[in-house]
Amino acid sequence: MLDDTLLDDPAALQRADRDRALLALAGAGARVRTALRLADAAGLDRLRPDGRPRAVLVAGHGSALTAGEILTALAGHGGLITTLPPTEAAAPRADRAGAPPAFTAGLGWQLPGWAGPLDLLVVSSADGGEPGLVSLAEQAYARGCAIVVTAPAGSPLAEAALQVRALPLPYVSSALPEDEAPARPAAEPDLPAEDPAALWSHLTPLLALAQKIGITQLPYDALPAVADLLDATAVRCRPDAAAYTNPAKGLAARLAGTVPLLWAEGPIAGAVATRFAAQLAERAGRPALAGPLPQVLTAHRGMFTGQLGAGADPDDFFRDRVDEPDPLHLQVLLLRHVPGAPGGRPGARPGGAADEADGPAEVPEDDAGPRSFGVTRAHRLAGAHDVRLTEYATARPDPLHALADLVALTDFAAVYLGLAAAQS
Q: Rounded to whole angstroms, how far apart are CA atoms 380 and 376?
């Protein structure tokens, strides 16, 4: 069982955060601003597209693919967005210094057979050293595709972008000082942990490009406002904020000792739920199942009727806490985007003051606001099997801002859960 008092010890959190994940998340807003500035300097602001591409293919791994999924959610029916994950893996070659190569150096990608001159390939990499992505860009060039490459300046992928006449956009790396670099050796050297804020370095140039070519209909100031939202969340979720005022710490405490079921209503919340599941695995070492309403109700039904959903009380007074381990139980986290909620906040009473500055809100169980049948049935399913359901929602009208709100909160929660569990 997690000792949640650890969450209120900033010094202990700092000692446990050896790879400076909290600091990286706190700098996410700055990375968005830098990425926008560098993209314009690289020529994105001067781009004059001749119509929209038939399809946008987003290639990479990790957060680069998450960025593609988020673009799909934001674009809706505005265009065909396809993510290209790696399709093969080979043993990578060691470098001349004999250092163990990263697993990603042996990954391979393939263009779909239908890709051609009417399509746009976006290749995004935080490392820029994957030969498979270089080969993919060469495939696209041979087929006449338009190509955009986001990679660190000077990397092999950035150099290849010039050879295939791609638009090169710089990847913004973490701004951690050298003395703040991770000191702990990786448990799996060829599978290093991903920078928790890398998503914004992939997503920002991708959305700026999509806005330029007409794939999304975002307001002109939507992306700069995202940086401000991320800064505001970093202040609310800072390590020295008490757990009862820090929404990320509160969410982490709720998920401790549980098997989280991350349910989402709508494509925006669905992208966040998928991201949160990946971050819980990466940062907290916890499995979680994510899925969209309404189909997730049938997909996860068996877990409620099994042992995890039997209504066992983890706080049973008569349980032997020495000989009996803490039982695992289900916890449903329902994520929603409800633009136009009364008072500007989910769960607010009609006529209440608008207060979007506080970010996503936990919706009270007795909330009388409008619900879809899928949400109502989710509450009934959880209640019938004594499973706790916690609902978080954002009322921001802009889908991108709603997504940024939820991603920032859940990213911090995953990091806090991992740090507190490591000290328990």
A: 6
CA dist list (Å): 385 to 12, 38, 378, 379, 401: 37, 52, 11, 10, 35
| Amino acid occupying residue 375 | V
Q: Which token pair is 261?
A: 């079921």
Instruction: Say how many CA atoms lie within 13 Å of 143 toward its Cβ.
Output: 21
**Prior bond to 152 cis, omega within 30?**
no
Q: What is the pLDDT of residues 107-154, one digit of tens each?
A: 999 999 999 999 999 999 999 999 999 999 999 999 999 999 999 999
Collect the ranges in the chain with pLDDT lower than 50. 312, 349-354
Please spell the DSSP secondary structure of 159-228, one letter per residue. HHHHHTT-EEEE-------GGGS--SPPSSTTSPPPPTTHHHHHHHHHHHHHHHHTS----TTHHHHHHH
Helix, strand, or coil (residue 237): coil
Burial status of residue 379 (CB atoms within 10 A of its CB: 0-12, 13-18, 19 or more): middle
- Amino acid at residue number 307: Q
What is the identity of the amino acid at 236? R
Query: What does the alpha-carbon distance between residue 353 and residue 341 come to, in Å, rounded to a whole number?
Result: 11
Q: Are 57 and 143 in contact (CB under 8 A)?
A: no
Whole-model pTM: value is 0.91
At residue 69, the pLDDT reads: 97
